[in-house]
Every structure is written in C-alpha cells, then in structure tokens.
Amino acid sequence: QVQVVESGGGLVQAGGSLKLSCASSEKIFNFNDMGWYRQAPGKQREMVATLTGGLLTNYANSVKGRFTISKDYDKNTVYLEMNSLKPEDTAVYYCNFGQQWLGKRYDYWGQGTQVTVSS
User: Fold this and answer.
1) Smallest Cα–Cα separation from 91: which of 115, 68, 60, 112?
2) Residue 67: per-residue pLDDT
3) Handedness of CA 45, 13, 85, 36 (dihedral sign)
4) DSSP letter string over 12-49?
5) In this structure, are residues 80 and 69 in contact, taking their beta carbons and an 8 Å threshold?
6) Is 8 helix (H, G, I), strand (E, B) or coil?
7) What is the mean pLDDT of each run of 10 residues along the chain (119 residues)?
8) How much is the pLDDT for 18?
9) Rounded to whole angstroms, how far apart are CA atoms 51 and 26?
10) Which of 84, 59, 83, 55 is nearest to 71 (CA)?
11) Are 110 and 95 in contact (CB under 8 A)?
C-alpha cells in the first residue's frame, strides 16, 4: 500500500504564502499523474492543480497565476507553492497520486493538511 503524507499547512494572513509538500512511499516517477485537491467546509472536493506525465500541468481557474505544482523525483515528493493567498483558499488540501494498471485506475490519497487564510 502506498503511503502518502502531506505537510506544510497552517494559518497565514491574506496575501501570504505557503508551500505544501507531499511525500510518497513509492517512487513518484511510476505514477501517471499527481495532484492537489482541496475541500472547504460544506463544499465538494475540487481539483487545485495536477501534473500529468511529469510535464503537463493543469490548474483550477481560481488559482492560476498564484499556485505552482512541482515535483522532486529524488525525494519522491510533490509540492504546491501557494502565493497571494485569499480567505477563499481556506480548505483541507489533499495530495493524490494516480496510476493506471491493466485498464484500472488506482488512486492514493493523503490524510490532508489544513490551510487557513485569515482576512
């Protein structure tokens, strides 16, 4: 079973920055895609940023130009750098690794890390 551990969340003032980290127990090079999702209270989980094939990035419109997803194969870690944070960015942020194997998709999720942005 793949272990996924997020870190780096916390409380920050609006306009501030945070960098989330997500470490995998398996080599992330083997995953087809990786990404960050978030869930605010009373809302559904939504995609924030994804990285496919190690190169193709995709961002939610609400975070474009402010958030950056990156990875470090040597550390088996994916990052989410968040700048110009807004109160509406407040949520639990989850890391995901996805793998396609014999026609089936396998998803591995972390436990989540809380990000709170105060106004």
Assistant:
1) 115
2) 98
3) negative
4) EETT--EEEEEEESS-GGG-SEEEEEEE-TTS--EEEE
5) yes
6) coil
7) 95 98 96 97 97 94 98 97 98 97 95 97
8) 98
9) 17
10) 55
11) yes
pLDDT at 1 (0 to 100): 87
**Among all chains, which residue has been given the structure tokens 């996805």?**
98
Measuring CA to CA, how many Å separate 91 from each of 44, 48, 61, 65? Answer: 11, 11, 16, 19
Q: Which residues contact 24 (CB under 8 A, 6 or more apart)?
A: 2, 3, 4, 31, 76, 77, 78, 97, 108
Residue 60 vs residues 20, 30, 44, 67, 71: alpha-carbon distances, Å: 17, 24, 14, 9, 18
End-to-end CA, the chain: 40
Token pair belonging to 48? 């924030």
For residue 79 the two structure tokens come to 């990052």
